[in-house]
Fold this protein.
Amino acid sequence: MSVILKPVITEKMTAKGESLNQYGFLVDKRANKIQIKAEVEELYGVQVVSVNTMNYSGKRKQRFTKSGVISGKAKSTKKAIVTVAEGENIDFFSNI
């Protein structure tokens, strides 16, 4: 089972990476902090200091169409903020 689904690359996370050595990842909902730490260390070759996780519930969505109201729900996700050791960094754009 792959724990890390994809990195979160936004303006806010890029600023956190430069100033606080923190990087964001979308992770599997069943993953715990120990599994996330181990996979980040293995994939990127850095020393992880701490891992913070956040669970986001899916938002309810509805739109009005000619045939009536269509309602649904966006899927729920889990995000992890990983703090790496001082002096180390993760470069997401190195293999593009």
